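Example 3.2
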Amino acid sequence: MTKKTYDVFCLHCEEGFSGPVGTSFFGFRTFDCPHCKKTSTYPLFLKYRMIYLALLVFMVIAFIGIVSKGWFAYPGLFGLAVIYVVIKDMVVKGRVDSIFSIKKPAEPSKVD
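Structure, written as tokens:
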């Protein structure tokens, strides 16, 4: 079974290419650029993003509940991993959006 290919831009050399998608440990999409031979990391799929955000909301609610009882609370390794993934997804999404806004052809203006 062959992997599905996507038309993407390399985030390092900004060249367009078509390639198979890979997945990182946390669920980020990765592509290997044939031009510069570097790996580009794309944002999470929507379902992964929703799962991580739901986990983050649950952790924040649990943290508030624990602190409101006067106990000491801190995020564990799992909590730190969720926070890392959410922040990395925001950074990667911003980088990809900025590249696509530059590479997207301008729409013709309408004259009435």
